[in-house]
Every structure is written in C-alpha cells, then in structure tokens.
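quick one, 223 residues, struct below
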Amino acid sequence: MSDMTIGKVAKAVGVGVETIRFYERRGLLDQPPRPEDGGYRVYPDEAVRRVQFIRRAQELGFSLREITELLSLRSAHSADAGDVRRRATVKLQDVDRKIVRLQRIRQGLATLLDRCPGAGPLQCCSILDALEQHDEGLSGELTQQQEEGMQTVRLTIGGMHCEGCTEIVRQVLEQQPGVKGCSVSHENGEARVAVDAALISGEQLAEAVRGAGYSASIAAEAD
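---
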C-alpha cells in the first residue's frame, strides 16, 4: 500500500476526501509533499492508522482539540498511560452529564405522549398545547438553559454538498468554546447551534465555519 493517494486513504477508512483534507488543515494529519514530476501526493501506511485513530476517538465523543492532545501524548516520551486515563475520565463525566440531560428530555416527551389522545382535530392536540404553554415536563430543560444564558444560533452555510461536508461543519462547530450541541443539514444549507452566549457569538461561529472552507452567515439568533 505504498502508492496510496488521498482517495485510497479515504476509501480505506470509509470517509470522504474532503474529510482527509480537513484533518490536514487542522494539523491532525501531515500532508505529503507533491512529487517534483507533478503527480499525486503519496501517503504512507501510517496515514490510514492515524485517520482510523481520529475517527474512533470522535466516535467516543472526543473533540478535534482533544484528539490533537491525545496524538501529542502518543508521541511524547514523558507521557504515560495516566495522562490518557485522566482525559478519558473527563470525557466519561461529560458523557454522563449528557445522558442525564437526554433522560430529562425523554421523560418530558414520554409525559406528553401519555397525555396525547392520538386522534382528533389539531385544535385538541395536547402536545401542541403543551409546547405553546411551555409545559414543565418538556420545557424544563429549555428553561434551565435560558437561565444559564443559553442561546440558539441559526447559520446559513454555503458549499455543503454531501454528508461528509455536514460532518466537517458539525465537528468545527462542536469544538468551539461554549457550544453545547448543534444540528447541521446540507440539504437545507443551515446549522442550528445551542451556545452559551457569554462564551461565543454567532459571528464567531460563522467565522469558524468559514475557516473550514465554507461560506457562513447568521440567519437568525434568538434566545
């Protein structure tokens, strides 16, 4: 596999070429020099193992910044397993907090479904009524976020053509300070981002997306 082009590396790992280029721009993967004869760049076998490491770390919830730190530990002579364990422990605690939050949301949705008659005109829909009236069973989480200065920012994003682009934009947004979660759609060309307004602004989010090679602007910003 000594003649691996960027396309072959992407295929071996199961990602798009744009994802590999994004990792290179972020400094997670070294870009080989272009041959003097103007041919394709040739990647070493280590490139596949490195991208697989990045992908697996992402699946476990590590941000690109955290993955960069893990890769640095991997090559640091002074580091030991304890350093990696401490980072994994912090990530586990973060996952536990998210599970608690999701359980609260699930409980709120289950409460609404229990109240729903399942038939009849929309005017009698208990779910819509509860949403409009800020039912505590479902909106408690939202209320808590609002009290903590949470805000939803909607970005209009240009240049996304596939799910690979969607993933890149999502990764960029999720690693920004103050971002608590986001959803990205290449079909609609937009992203909705839940942020701590005290830590980051909508324009800063848009600038981060533009840094990844896409156009971005604030479509709406609401509490």
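Residues 39 and 184 are 36 Å apart (CA to CA).
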